[in-house]
Design brief:
Layout lengths: L42 E4 L2 E2 L16 E7 L4 E6 L12 H10 L2 E6 L9 E2 L2 E2 L30
Antiparallel strand pairs: 1-2, 1-5, 3-4, 3-5, 6-7
Length: 158
C-alpha cells in the first residue's frame, strides 16, 4: 500500500500502483560502484573464517560431487577452481567441507560454491581443462568469464 487508501493483501509494490501512477523502485546491494556482481551458494569462507557449520547435510548436495568455486585472496587475487567428480578411478569429487578446505589452503579470504555437478567445466584460453562428469560440457544459462583486459563496453566508474 503506497498512500494508505488502497488495500493490497499481496504486499506487492506493483500491485499497489494505480494505472498511470508513477512509482520508484530502487535497491542497494551494499556494493557501491560495483559493475559486476556474482553470487553462489553456500559461502565456503567469509573474511578468513571457514563456514563449517553450514556445510553439512544428508542429501547429495553436501556429498562428494563435481564442484566449481571462486575465491579472493587477501592481496586481491581471484581463485577459480573446478573439481571433477563422479568418475571412480579418476576423481570422486569433493564435499562442500573439503572444497572449503581446498579454498582455504589456496589462500582464499572469501570464497563460495558455484553451480556444480555436470555443470562443472572450465576453459582456459579456449581449451577445456577438466573432465566434466557427463563426458561433455553441459549447456548452462550462466558462465563466469574472465577477460585479459577491460571490457570496452563496460562503464568506467573510476
Amino acid at each position: 500500500m503506497l498512500d494508505g487508501s488502497r488495500f493490497n493483501p499481496s504486499g506487492s509494490f506493483l500491485d499497489a500502483l494505480y494505472p498511470g501512477q508513477r512509482g520508484v523502485l530502487s535497491t542497494n546491494l551494499g556494493f557501491p560502484g560495483a559493475v559486476d556482481v556474482l553470487g553462489g551458494n553456500p559461502v565456503l569462507i567469509a573474511n578468513g573464517a571457514t563456514q563449517w557449520q553450514d556445510l553439512t547435510g544428508d542429501d547429495a548436495f553436501f556429498a562428494r560431487q563435481p564442484r566449481t568455486a571462486v575465491g579472493v585472496t587477501n592481496d586481491g587475487r581471484m581463485l577459480l577452481v573446478v573439481v571433477d567428480g563422479r568418475q571412480p578411478g579418476y576423481s570422486v569429487g569433493m564435499s562442500l567441507g573439503e572444497l572449503a578446505e581446498l579454498m582455504n589452503a589456496l589462500g582464499a579470504r572469501n570464497a563460495f560454491n558455484l553451480d556444480g555437478g555436470g555443470s562443472s567445466a572450465m576453459f582456459v584460453n579456449g581449451q577445456r581443462v577438466n573432465r566434466p562428469s557427463d563426458g561433455y560440457e553441459r549447456g548452462v544459462g550462466s558462465a563466469l568469464v574472465v577477460l585479459p583486459g577491460a571490457d570496452p563496453g563496460q562503464a568506467d566508474l573510476s
